[in-house]
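Predict structure. Chain length: 118.
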Amino acid sequence: QVQLVESGGGLVQAGGSLRVSCAASGRTFSIYDMGWFRQAPGKVREFVARIRWRDGNPSYADSVKGRFTISRDNAKNTVYLQMNSLKPEDTAVYFCAADPGRATYEYWGQGTQVTVSS
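Prediction complete.
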């Protein structure tokens, strides 16, 4: 099992920046990939970014490309999402998730709220 705990959400004005973190514990050696997803009120959960644990190779949704950066600290078993140039439409609960190499995100955190005011 892998446990994930997000932190760092909050309220920020449009154009501002925020960094959210996700700390993993448990069977972290099994993690192949970690991702960030978000869910706005009344909308389905959507992919934001992912990072391959072994080599840090990232990928992003088009909606955040160039504004968000995903990174990881293997020593701390933590993945980060640096969010710049935030827009009101980025408002959502942000979740991190871990894929233990079975091509599916099996483990999820509880989420952290990010609110961007206009």
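Summary: The chain has a mean pLDDT of 96.
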